[in-house]
Amino acid sequence: MSFPPDFLWGTATSSYQVEGNNTNSDWYAWEAADPTRIKGDLGCGQACDWWNNAEADLDIAAELGNNAHRLSLEWSRIEPEPSVFDTEAIARYRAILQACHDRGLEPMVTLYHFSNPLWLVEKGDFSSEIVVDYFRRYVAKVVAELGDLVSKWITINEPITYGVMRYLTGEFPHGKRTGIGATFEAIHNMLRCHAAAYHIIKENRPEALVGTANNMQVFEARPGGNAIDRLWAGQIDRLYNNSWQDALHTGRYRGVIGSKHIKHLAGTFDFVGVNYYSRFYLHFPPPPGFVDREWGPDAIVSDGNYGEVYPRGLFDVINRVWKRYSKPIYVTENGVPDAVDRIRPGFLLSHLRQIWYAISFCYPVMGYYHWSLVDNFEWDRGWTQRFGLIKVDPITQERTWRPSAHLYREICQSYSINDDMAARYAPEMLEVMWPGKEPAHSEQAAR
Ligand code: FCB
Questions:
Q1: ω before 404 within 30° of 0 (cis)?
Q2: Residue 78 in contact with residue 91, Cβ under 8 Å?
Q3: Which phi and psi angles does 291 have, rounded to 5°?
């Protein structure tokens, strides 16, 4: 199963999760105030030490045969005090972006990935419209200083997830205000910020591509559920998976009741970024934690009951996104927490097969960024969930290649997935993906 010659093969990371010691971020203060907020016994700490040495891991990305990398900028480093821009921090980001180019990794840059400058929280952050002018100023600075090195921008990572986790469920550092009202106001303000950022980038760099990375999950009523469960699942699906991107498309955000027109928003995207992880079942009234965490007997479930592995869902969300918006699609995140690499090789093959399938329908899926290159600080779940192709010991900083890293290298180098790879890395996938086929060349077949 071959991929187009211009396909982008990458991995995705975010600044707070890999850089270490982001002392001006609200996450840092949140962790410090009460370490029990973070699962396990380790906080972010030095993370993967990227602030000092991102280059070492970018070397690994190049060794993997990648030609792209998605990373984010830490607003709290670039602007540690209101309108005080840190020239050293900007220079460090220039060096990291240049390091990507030097290694043949085309950077896709996220302007905002879940972390706020402390001063911004004081002023009210996304739950207050004041954020829009601050965001505009930050983005203008970034585009002026770094724009020559970036051809693809993500303005905001997973805005709906962020709104929910920060303002509603409270797993993430709280905003000054919380609750349903604050959540929807934050979403409106994120839309305004996105629109402002889109226009700034386009005015300065008309050739650059701009989009957002949307977390899209499959939400279904639990098996055997009733009509209310199905109605509920349908509403959640619309609010979670469609409402943000629909707003970018039409200029109008449709929440629970009514809708709101946002100025200068319609049409502000050149591509759709899809972050895809799992399928979830829902029922009404929702349980604590919102989604059911019981799976059928045949389900493959990742570490920590994180979610069900459901590759077909990736095709379904791509199909939906193409039919709704008809714009190029990047899979900007896809991965699985799996410390011992039990299911990741099969996960990689089966999800890439769905992308191949979509491409074979001529859907313009332009690239794939696996989450993640290295194990990193997984927000409220700390280091308890390991998403890396490369294992990281956060204390010694030692790196170890998981079998999946070797597999991903073969995939990226050959622009293909095949039965021989499955035979060697994920034999359980052979019968599923190539029914009836004997692997041609593998040692396993020879045996
Ligand atoms: C996504 C986030 C990313 C990481 C992965 C596992 O929702 O964008 O930062 O936490 O999940």
A1: no
A2: no
A3: -105, 155
Q: Per-residue pLDDT for 443 more than 60?
A: no
Give pLDDT tens digits for 202-250: 999 999 999 999 999 999 999 999 999 999 999 999 999 999 999 999 9
Three-state SS letters, the chain: CECCCCCEEEEECCHHHHCCCCCCEHHHHHHHHCHHHCCCCCCCCCCCCHHHHHHHHHHHHHHCCCCEEEEECCHHHHCCECCECCHHHHHHHHHHHHHHHHCCCEEEEEEECCCCEHHHHHHCHHHCCCHHHHHHHHHHHHHHHHHHHCCEEEEEECHHHHHHHHHHCCCCCCCCCCCHHHHHHHHHHHHHHHHHHHHHHHHHCCCCEEEEEEEEEEEEECCCCCHHHHHHHHHHHHHHHHHHHHHHHHCEEECCCCEEECCCCCCCCCCEEEEEEEEEEECCCCCCCCCCCCCCCCCCECHHHCCECCCHHHHHHHHHHHHHHCCCEEEEEECCCCCCCCCHHHHHHHHHHHHHHHHHCCCCEEEEEECCCECCCCHHHCCCCCCCCEEECCCCCCEEECHHHHHHHHHHHHCECCHHHHHHHCHHHHHHHCCCCCCCCCHHHHC
- How do residues 172-185 score in pLDDT, each as one tens digit? 999 889 999 999 99
How far, in Å, is the centroid of ligand 1 from the Cα of 105? 21
Mutate to test the pocket of ligand 1, among 275, 277, 332, 344 (most ligand atoms within 8 A of CB): 275
The span from the CA of 169 to the CA of 338, in Å, is 25
pLDDT in tens, 9-41: 999 999 999 999 999 999 999 999 999 999 999
Site to substitute for ligand 1 among 333, 373, 374, 385, most atoms within 8 A of C-beta: 333
